[in-house]
Amino acid sequence: MSEAKPAERDSRRGRAAGGSSSTGPKGSTGSVRLDGKPKVDSFHNRDGLTLKTYSWQVKNPKGVIFLVHGLNTHVRLEYLRHNVEIVSTQKAILKDADNYYIYKDSWIEHLNKSGYSVYGMDHQGHGQSDGWRNIKTNVKKFDDMVYDLIQYMNRVHDVICLSGRKDGTSGQTSRSGSSGSPTSATSPSSHMSSGSPSSLTQRNNASSWSIHNNLRNTKTPPFYIMGLSMGGNIVLRTLEILGKSKNHNAKLNVRGCICLAGMISIDELASRASYKYFFIPCSKFFATLFPTLRLTPSLYFKKYPYVNQIFNYDKIRNKKPITCKLGYELLNAIENLNNDIDHIPEDIPILFVHSRHDSACFFGGAETFFKKINTNLKELHVPDDMDHVLTMEPGNEQVLQKVLAWLSALCPPDPTPA
């Protein structure tokens, strides 16, 4: 397939999104939000950082998908579309920065239309979440982001169970998982419910039902985790940690994992002189003595330059390079992921999607990792003529269709109506 056709299709989609209904809260033609109006919430992680969460829910979901974003981006930026006009593979023109995220025809909308409730959060130090020591793109340990995801998944699980119990006591037969907020029902640290009498009642109910410990028999939809780039590392690392505690996954019911252009190896990037002779050899030194210094250059994608413009137009994304501490933790994350590969559960299917031409995360390393995983429930899909940002580039529609087909083969049949 030639480059022009998918690029032209993306261009038409960009223009369609920017028609008369393309409106924003500041200085634009109206006040209609284009991001699908997700339920926005937050929770405090184990270090007390406030993490922003989003959910696009459907009634009676056949599955729950957690979207995990990559480095120096955020969940809406990577999995929604953008209020730009893509005129070529070289250029995107900004239409409305104040109403930048578009649900229509996005990955999230297609997941919803296929019957999945979608949840996501901004990692600590990213998007609208707090950063370690109040510094953006900064972490104490890389695995903290993994444990944040597991904590969030537990919260979503608990609110689905809570909703199911409420439905049961009121005589309703609808399947749980399509209503409620993951934090407002279960978390004392939720900003949306703090202080009100109703929230205190909810907390007491959650405590009396021992929601975190006694709801294992409550039926919940299967959970799936999907991550792009650094997010791909996080979802695989999540499997490793769950594999070390099998009872934990028995509660969460993770039934599939999708790794998109995963940060499994950076050998290609590391071959560049600046990384090979300076950034990587000196990473521990700078992370120890100058942890908040920002030296590592930001990635630039040459194959489809308009992707860089989409990132730069975003008002929430941090425009500065990552801290030396985070850079060092990324190197540790790759090493830890490969060292603990034997802990990945054999019974959880995994789909890898990785381009041979990925300029950020080395395809050869991902392929080697794929071959080493001790499971038969794995698949490697190699898209044609793509680079790294698989949710934005020409051809992303074909990647999405592959993901949906793979999920469909895993999901149980839809329940018959009562």
UniProtKB/TrEMBL annotation:
It holds the Pfam family Hydrolase_4. It comes from the Eukaryota. Residues 1-41, 166-204 are annotated as: Disordered. Residues 105-157, 217-394 form the Serine aminopeptidase S33 domain. It comes from Plasmodium fragile. Residues 1-13 have a biased composition (Basic and acidic residues). Residues 18-31, 169-201 have a biased composition (Low complexity). This is Serine aminopeptidase S33 domain-containing protein. Signal peptide: none annotated. InterPro entries: AB_hydrolase_fold, Hydrolase_4, MAG_DAG_Lipase, PST_A.
